[in-house]
Amino acid sequence: MKKIITIALLLSAFLGNAQSFSGKGDKKFQVGANFQDHATGIMATYDYGIGENMSIGGYTTYLLGVDGDGSKFEDRFDLKARFNANIGNVMGLPENFDIYPGLDLGLRNFGAHLGGRYFFTNGFGLFTEFSVPIAKYKSDVFGYDRLNNQFVFHVGASFNL
User: Fold this and answer.
1) 136 vs 30, residue with greater confidence
2) Which of 15, 25, 102, 125 is positioned for an S-S bond with 158, CB 3.0–4.6 A?
3) Are 88 and 126 in contact (CB under 8 A)?
């Protein structure tokens, strides 16, 4: 019983100090797995706070496992600029939890995302994010162009820099 209480106190000390978004000047790096139809891959994001509840940044993904793989590097790779509205504090959530809807403009489409991150300590947390294309650059998307023009689910680790 003593061990359980000690562990709970230690965890609460870490959880109480964690902060998911601190406003202007805040820097986040996320790395994780990318899951979508016919492919899986790795992804990374960087976000920089430009205001109390706003951040801008970049996103990149590379698909590792593609069904019927005749794809080239340019079919597997994507790069996007992104804007987030970090609304965890607006919603009254604990300061170690953040929800961030946003928009992104990439090499293949204009899209939207919705994510959430939970920090266990000041430097480390977990995140999950969903992305969807709003407008595709090609009206007739087929073949490997579909890889970066569909619903995508991400999960991974988030770091305060």
Assistant:
1) 30
2) 125
3) no
